[in-house]
What we know:
Layout (H helix, E strand, L loop, with lengths): L5 H7 L25 E5 L10 H15 L4 E5 L10 H6 L5 E5 L19 H6 L9 H11 L3 E5 L8 E5 L14 E3 L3 H8 L4 E3 L6 H6 L5 E4 L1 H6 L8 E8 L3 E6 H6 L2 H17 L1 H19 L3 E3 L3 H22 L1 H11 L4
Parallel strand pairs: 1-2, 1-3, 6-7, 6-8, 9-11
Antiparallel strand pairs: 3-10, 4-10, 5-8, 5-9
Helix pairs in contact: 2-10, 5-13, 12-13
Amino acid sequence: MENMNRRNFLKTVGVAGGMAAISGPSGLMGGIAFGAPTFTGVTYLTPGYKDIMPAIKGFVDKLSENAAGKFKVDFYDSQTLVKASEQNAALRASTIQFMFHTSSYITRSFKILGITGLPGVVEELYKNPERCMMESPLWKACNDALAKENIFQLSTGGGILEPEYIWSGAKKIRSLKDLDGKRCRIVSYEATEALKKFGVSGVRIPSSELYLAVQRGTVDAAVANVSTIISRKVNEQIKCVYKLPVTGFTISIFLLKSKWDAMPADQKDAFWKAAKFFDQDCAPRINTKFYPEVYWPIIAKDDVEVVEPTKAELAKFAAESKSILAWWKKQVGEELGQKMINLATGKA
């Protein structure tokens, strides 16, 4: 990895309109070195995400191994090169060549990715991870839509991670009724709209700021995956988790479609094989092994009250969420939206 911090990188290359990192022999950061191109990748996630980072590191290691001296791989985590909000711009400017991103963070930029977080759909995707995997009909349909924006989603990490539940501090939320009047940290737009119907005021706060927000009472609760809660040590402030499957997300690998299409066959093969590893080692391993064996025991040890929603509450939430599905279909196109929902729920 080259000795380049975020400030020097932005000064040298620029985020919104910098030089292409693999543009040719005269390129700067990540350019051609002795005839071998360099592929620069980023994630805003930190090593504190002990569930996700091993899969990401595994992808990078496999990619480097598959490169076999034909190209170099530079990778930066923890926002050391670009901030989470800058990743898409950096990819567009070709100052990075691939990025790992949480789908819920970018559904406003790429509306088709909302399929991974729709209330009433996430549970189906969670239970059936193969529907999101590489080469699945849903993966292909999503990429067909993303291609119009010159984006290629190489892998979704093998499916969505365990759904995001409602985690609360001193003002415990144990039911749908308890949501009324609460300020809640929510990332995805879809979840924000769904919880509005129950009197929730949504606040968009980055995971890096969540600990202080809960500690100071800036928010009463957070819609989050157990990974975010523990990786950011928010469990130290949490008193209750209401396991309503509000929304979900994938950890996906993105490249520019034009760059992917222009890659020589051997480079594509290197990325593809590494992504196949990531497809199996991310969500499938984390959901079935890591969470039940590592993270949820920590929640139990911290004496966090765990409340399961009743069947009536689940039915009410699903009924109220139908309008969110209708809204999303209008965003992406009625026919395409229904096709995506059918594929996600096993009806196609």
